[in-house]
Amino acid sequence: MSNGTQAVKTQAVKWPTWRSELHSMKVTIRRVGNSLGLIIPKSVIDAWGVDEGDQLEVTSRGIRPPGRAGLSSEALDDLKRSISLAVVRRFTPREIRAQIPANLRRWRGQGAWVSAYDEWQAIAKRGDDGELFAAMLGRDDTATRLRESMPFVGLLPQAEVRRLHEEAAG
């Protein structure tokens, strides 16, 4: 600013604690030397188990201590099965199969293609509901591998997907 004062922005920042509770509080962005910084309340620092010099992860969804947000491969597949189940509960097999090629065409055009997409494409073309549900909800190795590349994204509202992610995080 021209009068020598600095603008200070205040934003609500959400972060999970080690107890997986979601806290929301306002923190102020302040000038620290030539940079900008946040002052995080001591209660949050203590709950995270971090101290001066430790690193935090910053994403578009918030700030968190490193290593606490990652899910094991089993937990990640449980999350993907939960998303698949929510899709199956909300949409008909025909609606799900209609979404699959639309996403696959878009991803191919963007140069993002993995072999599992060929399998999903074949499943959608065959029109077998049992095969579709087995790929989406099964616990075998093939279903687990196919769920790593789910081409029916976009069917669920983002709020529902976010809720499922938060539940999986604990």
Helices and strands in order:
Layout: E1 10-16, E2 22-32, E3 35-38, H1 42-48, E4 57-59, E5 62-64, H2 73-90, H3 93-109, H4 115-126, H5 129-137, H6 141-147, H7 158-169
Antiparallel strand pairs: 1-2, 2-3, 4-5
Helix pairs in contact: 2-7, 3-4, 5-6
Please characterize this protein's 3D structure.
- By secondary structure, the protein is α+β, with helices and mostly antiparallel strands.
- The chain contains seven helices and five strands, in the order βββαββαααααα.
- α3 (93-109) packs antiparallel against α4 (115-126).
- The longest helix is centred in the middle third of the chain and has 18 residues, at 73-90.
- The radius of gyration is 21 Å and the shape is elongated.
Widest beta sheet: strand line-up = 1-2-3
Q: Largest beta sheet, briefly?
A: 3 strands, antiparallel
Distance between the termini: 44 Å
The best one-word shape is elongated
Question: SSE order, as H and E?
Answer: EEEHEEHHHHHH
Number of helices: 7
Residues in β-strands, percent:
15-25%
**Structural class by SSE content:** alpha+beta
Helical fraction equals 40-55%
Mean pLDDT: 80
Rg from alpha-carbon coordinates? 21 Å
Which regions have little confidence, pLDDT < 50, spanning 5+ residues? 5-23
The tally of strands reads: 5
Quick structural gist:
The protein is α+β, with helices and mostly antiparallel strands and 170 residues long.
